[in-house]
Specification:
The protein is α+β, with helices and mostly antiparallel strands and about 270 residues long. It has helices at about 5-15, 30-40, 50-55, 65-75, 90-95, 100-115, 115-150, 205, 255-270; strands spanning about 20, 25, 155-160, 165-170, 175-180, 190-200, 210-215, 230-235, 240-250. The chain contains nine helices and nine strands. Strands 3, 4, 5, 6, 7, 8 and 9 form a seven-stranded antiparallel β-sheet that branches. A two-stranded antiparallel sheet has the order 1-2. A hairpin with a 5-residue loop joins β1 and β2.
């Protein structure tokens, strides 16, 4: 840890306009961070030596708890956009439109035409009850699945306040320093700072079943395809071997996984 007036930190403050809290970590303002986030889209083209300044974090210390909280409020949870649940009445109408229930409704109409109103009411009551029970059962199952997802939410190992801590993947923010190890799933897109025999399974993102060797020291041109960005790790992929350290560059819908989800949504909506 440097003294508060050390040349190293003063130089960084002059370069970035950052505010140092006793050199514990250097911090750029929210305006600067947002400008950096919008300006730096090709993190694979950024040298390792520049990543700290661009991301507003010191790799050896990570974000402080308060800074991580502020960034979470600014950028939002690290989640893909969830599909909005249809209102109850729409699900109910869809159930009523099932062929068997439509047949029963038609039977009720015939009873009305023949003057048998009691029988018609009885048939329609059965239709309403069956549709209601079906919608209730489906919604209860959806709630149970959502609860299981919440329990099984993946964890990320990050460095904060100078210490490695486990946090929920949804709490990972841009600038977080992720610690990668075999068997761990990547929680967000990140630029590698350090790597040792790092091999990732990127099949969920690229479709390639063969593991990809990663290297922090590589600096690539801006137009390199996703599958060839060897100094980046992406959300949804898994570490097969080795270890590494990476600075988070994108979370939520700003990740490559989020862009794919958006394209899929647009494809479903059609022209």
């Amino acid at each position: 840890m440097h003294a508060s007036g050390c040349p190293h930190c003063c130089k960084r403050r002059q370069q970035t306009g950052a505010v140092s809290n006793g050199c514990y970590y250097f911090r750029v303002t929210s305006i600067q961070q947002d400008a950096v986030a919008s300006a730096v889209t090709s993190w694979h083209s950024v040298p390792v030596s520049d990543v700290e300044d661009r991301a507003g974090v010191r790799v050896d210390l990570g974000l402080s708890t308060s800074e991580a909280r502020q960034r979470l409020a600014r950028y939002g949870p690290n989640r893909l956009r969830e599909e909005q649940r249809a209102p109850f009445w729409r699900d109910f109408v869809e159930e009523v439109c099932e062929p068997m229930l439509l047949l029963l409704l038609g039977t009720g109409v015939l009873y009305v035409l023949f003057g048998q109103l009691v029988e018609a009411g009885f048939v329609w009551a059965i239709v309403l009850a069956m549709a209601g029970i079906e919608v209730f059962t489906e919604r209860r199952a959806d709630n149970a699945i959502a609860a299981l997802h919440a329990i099984a939410e993946p964890q990320a190992l990050v460095r904060r306040d100078g210490q490695p801590v486990q946090v929920a993947a949804s709490e990972v923010v841009p600038g977080d320093v992720m610690l990668l190890e075999a068997g761990r799933r990547i929680a967000a897109d990140a630029r590698l700072i350090d790597s040792h025999s790092l091999l990732l399974d990127e099949s969920a993102l690229t479709g390639e079943s063969i593991g990809v060797d990663k290297s922090a020291d590589v600096v690539l041109p801006a137009g390199v395809p996703l599958a060839e960005q060897l100094n980046m790790v992406f959300a949804g992929t898994t570490v097969l071997r080795g270890r590494g350290t990476a600075v988070v560059t994108a979370t939520g819908m700003r990740m490559e996984l989020g862009r794919i989800a958006e394209l899929a949504e647009q494809a479903e909506e059609g022209p």
